């Protein structure tokens, strides 16, 4: 998972760097939204963490600016001010959230991880179910659900437990997914799906 931290204050940067080290995240920091960039080759998924508003754009303008750069990434605001909360309520599409004001320091990193994963994979699943990604249109609903978990890095045992099926069933589903999407292996499958997801959302902006 890649986290892109924009306009970090020393406290949150230190907190998230420690979390990145312990959880093997790829954490990148940027002084402004203008300096933020992300590869579009499907090599990584994750989210944008906006600690402050270094350019004084305001919440809605900041979101619109970020959407032109990486519309597939959820945006998490660490500033839970009333202005941010009101702005996020006014947005009808996209994946945005803000850190609860009363959250304890030791719970910040787990909250960020869970929130980024929930928004990113929820967005991916919605696109799959709506047949938004061309290479996955032949998949069944169950295969699409399993595909989301594969992209999330879940192994066969975790998938089997989640859906209460046998390991053989999971293996069969994964084999069908590879065949139907024309993927050589799991790494190729993840790249294909991630790139398609990024491209499809980019074209909507």
Low-confidence stretches: none
For the sheet with most strands, the description reads:
5 strands, parallel
Query: Approximately how much beta-strand content do the residues carry?
Result: 5-15%
Number of DSSP-assigned strands: 5
Number of separate helices: 8
Written as H for each helix and E for each strand, in order along the chain, the element string is EHEEHEHEHHHHH
| CATH architectural group of the largest domain | 3-Layer(aba) Sandwich
Q: Overall mean pLDDT score? A: 82
The neighbouring-strand order within the major sheet is 2-1-3-4-5
Q: Strand pairing plus helix content: what structural class?
A: alpha/beta
The CATH superfamily of the largest domain bears the name: Response regulator
Cα-atom Rg, whole angstroms?
18 Å
CATH class of the largest domain: Alpha Beta
CATH fold type of the largest domain: Rossmann fold
Large-scale geometry: globular
Number of domains: 2
Helical content band: 40-55%
C-alpha termini separation: 24 Å
